[in-house]
């Protein structure tokens, strides 16, 4: 039986014996996957089995204990089948099960998996909260020497300092806060006669003999030694380290740590860490820190240097958090946390140290966000009082009934505009939830009083889409829609794409008040009364579009209209913030897909008015944890409700061999009078990639697959006028199928499109796939999204399976945050924000706990002027880069 299979069987059995509490491995069963999958593949374990085990264990921490037992029982039986062995079934869940939530992982290590399982980025609260940890004596102020350069350290000269500079280690403080990227647990001491293959252990013994000899025709030097501890002897080898034979001699007492391997039936260790027993043990017989390195630096050298800094300076660091806060939150003091995060005495202390330092990071982040929000609210803005009858008449003119979510968002925007403070609101809603209508009504409220509004979008296509939509809503300029022809679909097609029952989102129920308020009853549409309603709020000539491709003469005309106030609404791209664009009275800035813009760009648009109201929109649902932290300075409007008539998009993952089934669906939909998208990851074929490309595939599809259909081609290399022409033809129904790259991710709204086929789907992230899917299903007809990865193996891709399981953008956003981090959500949101090292923006429990303490402290001392908060104020300035971050 392969060692990796034995290993996973032991872990499953141990977990079952523990009552399915996710304590068999430090950090939880999902933390072993990266290491275990590598080992299994190296040993030739079937990929199907590796994928199956990985898929089930990744979500293990989030399951109830009953579900955990079912998952492990299934894996247990499958492993028996794969190995041809038999074993008793796993024990059932204990009666004391708490099904409400998974139990946090325990810090107790499993002897056979200690190295792989030690926490790397996951931070759990300490098993026993540190309530009254004694603080070491410290000088009255923060040691100024922490800002000293690393050259003050012994044996660190200019050359070493230059090398450390590549790790961004410039000062002693930098070194104190340069945390290990992982840990090797060599704290398990065992006698040699009890060693087992595959273990990561430490052995203490005496060198019996040692010698060096050349191997591989003299190209390599190998040092061989025999170490004995009285219970047995172990052969140890090192390659290309002949100096070890000169340092060690028979009779020397040493400690060696490493992985037990096998050679010719005997247990051996290859290239283990070793240290003389009389030395302080930093690399053996303990939980050993492993740091990120750069060229010309070894792990042992950096470890010794870090120990020199940490052991002397950590006890001298004064705690920025006040004593009462540490006691209330059950935190280690900062000195102990710094000592233990670098050189932990135990897994318990390591966990408590990481938890304290992660708490600090989120706490400073929260304080900065609260400070920004207070600074924004302290400004004054023009008051816009909107008559109720006027607003009702405007909403009654709309050709559809507003959803409850839209009505709530409009009420919140209206209150902001009447508050006398600048609106600073984030309007987040899934694809197709109707954010544009809310923005349009906000614009109408501003321009009703004669002021101006600007809407900035990241791409020309999206800006043009907004321009057409706002012309229709605000000026009554209609756009002709291709009318779909009703027809029955062939039975075999219906079988392929029959919509699956969708699970409800549990996350949404937990999101603050903005996420869970009851929806008000929807008013009946009064479109029939439109003839008696007042005129539209704007004339077409008062709404203009400004993009990079706008002719120079038209640009000058628009600039003049903005300057004299005759243009009330301008929609555009980055061209809006370029000189000499100026406004007579800009009172509302709207930024769509806000994460696509940097701080300076958003600030440039706001600066063109006098404290204008700000509304930022995103079609990427923001996970709760980010809404509480990174976006905590913004008031939040959540639109988690789809307009009436919108159909959930039925999503299916097909293998490459099933491509013809997808083509059959497209043919049947086109015959029924509808349209389809086909997305490719590349514009043109490349020697560097085997992925299909839009240009070549467009020609093939037109000639071989859809010879009787009209196919359009859209990609980023087309000129703006060419893109507009293609989209116009597709919108008007001249093209029945649009072959495109990711340029259609946002801004393409064709209600008649009902099929989205994505080739090379495994190359796209969840957020992008969800945006693609949002391009269809925008009418009243059932819609389908078909995902075809590049290989059959990729069908099991976790992202693709998640897409087929839910249409809920919030669930997908949480998964995207877990899998790929916060980059897709943050974009270039601010410039002075320090990168988090230990805290995870997916840890909602920690974030909520920190938020409560931060709010309590901020309400008492928002400027951190009290004597007990002086150090905290200094830490806040360092964290936020001197206050340069603008996160609005």
Walk me through this protein's architecture.
Among the domains are: 3-117, no CATH class; 188-285, Beta Barrel (OB fold (Dihydrolipoamide Acetyltransferase, E2P)); 421-639, P-loop containing nucleotide triphosphate hydrolases (Rossmann fold, 3-Layer(aba) Sandwich), CATH 3.40.50; 650-824, Rossmann fold. The strands form 4 sheets. It has a 7-stranded parallel sheet with strand order 11-12-10-13-14-9-15, sandwiched between helices. It has a 6-stranded parallel sheet with strand order 16-21-20-17-19-18, sandwiched between helices. A 5-stranded mixed barrel has the order 2-3-4-6-5. It is globular. The chain is α/β, with parallel strands linked by helices. Helix 12 packs across helix 30, helix 14 runs parallel beside helix 15 (435-447) and helix 15 (435-447) crosses helix 16 (460-475). Residues 96-117, 128-140, 479-534, 827-834 and 882-888 have low confidence and may be disordered.
């Amino acid at each position: 039986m392969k060692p990796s299979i034995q290993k996973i069987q032991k872990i499953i059995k141990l977990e079952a014996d523990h009552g399915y509490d996710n304590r068999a491995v430090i950090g939880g069963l999902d933390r072993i996957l990266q290491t275990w999958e590598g080992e299994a593949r190296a040993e030739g374990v079937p990929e199907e089995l590796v994928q199956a085990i990985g898929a089930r264990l990744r979500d293990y921490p989030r399951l109830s204990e009953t579900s955990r037992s079912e998952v492990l029982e299934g894996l247990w039986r499958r492993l028996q089948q794969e190995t041809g062995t038999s074993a008793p079934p796993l024990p059932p869940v204990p009666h004391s099960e708490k099904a409400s939530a998974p139990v946090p992982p325990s810090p107790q290590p499993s002897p056979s998996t200690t190295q792989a399982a030690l926490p790397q980025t996951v931070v759990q609260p300490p098993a026993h909260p540190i309530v009254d940890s004694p603080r070491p004596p410290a000088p009255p102020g923060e040691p100024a020497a922490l800002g000293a350069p690393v050259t003050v350290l012994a044996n660190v000269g200019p050359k070493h300092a230059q090398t450390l500079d590549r790790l961004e280690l410039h000062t002693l403080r930098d070194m104190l806060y340069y945390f290990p990227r992982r840990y090797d647990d060599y704290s398990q001491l065992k006698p040699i006669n009890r060693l087992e293959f595959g273990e990561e252990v430490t052995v203490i013994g005496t060198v019996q003999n040692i010698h060096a000899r050349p191997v591989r025709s003299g190209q390599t030097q190998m040092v061989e030694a025999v170490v004995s501890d009285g219970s047995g002897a172990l052969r140890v080898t090192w390659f290309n380290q002949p100096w070890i034979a000169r340092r060690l001699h028979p009779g020397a007492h040493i400690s060696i740590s490493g992985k037990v391997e096998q050679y010719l039936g005997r247990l051996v260790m290859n290239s283990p860490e070793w240290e003389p027993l009389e030395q302080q043990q930093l690399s053996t017989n303990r939980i050993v820190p492993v740091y990120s390195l750069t060229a010309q630096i070894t792990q042992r050298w950096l470890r010794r240097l870090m120990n020199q800094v940490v052991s002397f300076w950590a006890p001298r660091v004064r705690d920025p958090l006040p004593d009462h806060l540490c006691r209330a939150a059950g935190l280690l003091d900062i000195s102990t946390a710094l000592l233990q995060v670098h050189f932990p005495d135990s897994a318990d202390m390591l966990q408590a140290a990481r938890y304290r330092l992660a708490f600090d990071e989120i706490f400073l982040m929260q304080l900065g966000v609260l400070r920004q929000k207070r600074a924004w609210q302290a400004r004054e803005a023009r008051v816009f009082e909107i008559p109720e009858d006027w607003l009702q008449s405007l909403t009654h003119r709309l050709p559809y009934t507003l959803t409850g979510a839209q009505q709530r968002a409009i009420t919140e925007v209206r209150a902001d505009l009447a508050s006398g403070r600048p609106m600073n609101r984030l309007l987040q809603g899934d694809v197709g939830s109707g954010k544009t209508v809310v923005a349009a009504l906000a614009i109408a409220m501003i321009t009703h009083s004669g002021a101006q509004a600007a809407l900035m979008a990241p791409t020309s296509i999206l800006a043009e889409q907004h321009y057409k939509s706002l012309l229709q809503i605000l000026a009554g300029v209609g756009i002709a829609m291709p009318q779909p022809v009703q027809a029955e679909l062939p039975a075999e097609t219906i079988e392929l794409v029959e919509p699956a029952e969708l699970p409800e989102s549990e996350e949404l129920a937990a999101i603050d008040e903005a996420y869970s308020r009851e929806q008000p009853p929807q008013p009946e549409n009064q479109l029939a009364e439109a003839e008696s309603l007042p005129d539209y709020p704007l004339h077409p000539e008062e709404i203009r579009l400004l993009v990079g491709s706008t002719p120079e003469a038209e640009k000058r005309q628009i600039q003049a209209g903005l300057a004299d106030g005759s243009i009330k609404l301008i929609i555009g791209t980055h061209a809006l913030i370029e000189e000499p664009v100026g406004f007579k009275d800009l009172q509302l800035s709207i930024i769509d897909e806000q994460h696509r813009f940097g701080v300076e760009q958003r600030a440039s648009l706001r600066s063109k008015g006098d404290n204008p109201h700000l509304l930022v929109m995103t079609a990427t649902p923001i996970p709760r944890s980010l809404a509480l932290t990174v976006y905590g300075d913004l008031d939040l409007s959540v639109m988690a409700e789809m307009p009436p008539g919108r159909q959930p998009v039925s999503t299916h993952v097909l293998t490459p061999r099933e491509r013809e089934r997808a083509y059959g669906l497209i043919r049947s939909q086109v015959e029924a009078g509808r349209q389809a998208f086909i997305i490719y990851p590349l514009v043109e074929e490349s020697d560097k990639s085997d992925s299909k490309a839009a240009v070549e595939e467009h020609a093939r599809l037109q000639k071989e697959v859809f010879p009787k259909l009209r196919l359009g081609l859209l990609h980023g290399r087309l000129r703006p006028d060419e893109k507009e022409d293609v989209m116009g033809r597709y919108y008007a129904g001249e093209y029945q199928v649009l072959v495109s790259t990711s340029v259609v991710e946002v801004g393409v709204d064709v209600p008649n499109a009902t099929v989205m086929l994505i080739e090379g789907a495994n190359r796209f992230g969840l957020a992008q796939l969800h945006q693609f899917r949002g391009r269809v299903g925008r009418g009243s007809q059932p819609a389908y999204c078909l995902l075809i990865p590049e290989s059959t193996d990729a069908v099991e891709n976790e992202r693709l399976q998640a897409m087929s399981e839910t249409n809920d953008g919030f669930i997908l956003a949480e998964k995207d945050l877990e899998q790929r981090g916060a980059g897709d959500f943050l974009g270039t949101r601010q410039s002075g924000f320090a990168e988090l090292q230990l805290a995870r923006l997916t840890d909602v429990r920690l974030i909520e706990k920190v938020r409560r303490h931060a709010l309590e402290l901020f309400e008492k001392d928002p400027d951190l002027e009290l004597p007990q908060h002086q150090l905290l104020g200094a830490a806040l300035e360092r964290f936020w880069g001197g206050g340069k971050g603008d996160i609005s």
